[in-house]
Write a structure and sequence with these properties.
Blueprint (H helix, E strand, L loop, with lengths): L7 E5 L5 E6 L22 E8 L8 E3 L5 H8 L2
Parallel strand pairs: 1-4
Antiparallel strand pairs: 1-2, 2-3
């Protein structure tokens, strides 16, 4: 599975695993002032996939687990 033009991110969990997450209605900016152009606190925009890896792709956007809303963190722990 590819990264599909900035629609997917990898979330680093505390146990060292990375989980692939689809973020709806966003694109990450490659240039510019802000890294995100969407509300990162809206838990309805995140779809946690069942893909888990120790080594994410080189060009993947890596987000820490603490940066996500609480409901998304609960879903991350089930993968």
């Amino acid at each position: 599975m590819g990264l599909k033009h900035g629609k997917y991110i990898y979330v680093k969990r505390d146990d060292g695993w990375y989980v692939k997450v689809r973020v709806l209605n966003i694109r990450f900016k490659k240039k510019g002032k802000s890294k995100y152009e969407f509300d990162i606190n809206d838990p309805d925009k995140y779809i946690v996939l069942s893909v888990k890896t120790k080594k994410p792709p080189i060009k993947a956007y890596i987000v820490n687990e603490e940066d996500l809303p609480e409901r998304v963190r609960e879903r991350l722990s089930t993968v």
